[in-house]
Amino acid sequence: MHVESGAIVNQGAYAELRVQSETVNFQDPPPPYTPPVEGPTVTSQPIIHQTIILQVPLRSNPVYYTCDSCHERVYTKVKYVNSRKTHLLAGFICGFTCWCLICCLGAIPYLVKSFKKAEHYCPNCDKLLGTYSKI
């Protein structure tokens, strides 16, 4: 058995595969990309940095706070003042303990800071920054 160009040739006990070779012509690769030399120049944009200061909530103790009046970052000055709730609590205690003659316990809300309203002031310009009350 004898077949040419891509066929099997049988000569005796051995079989042989013959393949016709073809030459393949490849195209040349494209030239590398080079950016244009002439044209508008690109300028960098200015970088803007912003500092954002979040105000912490006011508490009964002094805190760092930015004053709206003088625009300084300050450690607040705290004054404890009696509020309407302080007077109501003292009156309730006095009225409740009046029957046993220990109405002097009604003075407790005037002596303890946690029953008073905390007013935060700027130490530079003495502007009221805010208030805080636990009760």
Folded structure, characterized:
The protein has helices spanning 84-97, 108-111; strands at residues 8-11, 14-17, 64-66, 73-75, 77-81, 117-121, 128-133. It is an alpha+beta fold. It has a domain at 58-135. Strands 5-6-7 form a 3-stranded antiparallel sheet, with no helix packed on it. Strands 1-2 form a two-stranded antiparallel sheet. The protein has a two-stranded antiparallel sheet with strand order 3-4. A hairpin with a 2-residue loop joins β1 (8-11) and β2 (14-17). The protein is elongated, with a radius of gyration of 46 Å. The model has no long low-confidence stretch (mean pLDDT 80).
Helix content: 10-25%
Strand content: 15-25%
The Rg value, from CA coordinates, equals: 46 Å
How many strand elements? 7
The overall pLDDT, averaged over residues, is: 80
Termini separation (Å)? 111 Å
The largest beta-sheet arranges its strands as 5-6-7
Count of DSSP helices? 2
**H/E order of the elements?**
EEEEEHHEE
Shape: elongated
- Regions with pLDDT < 50 over 5+ consecutive residues? none
Largest sheet: 3 strands, antiparallel
The class by helix and strand makeup works out as: alpha+beta
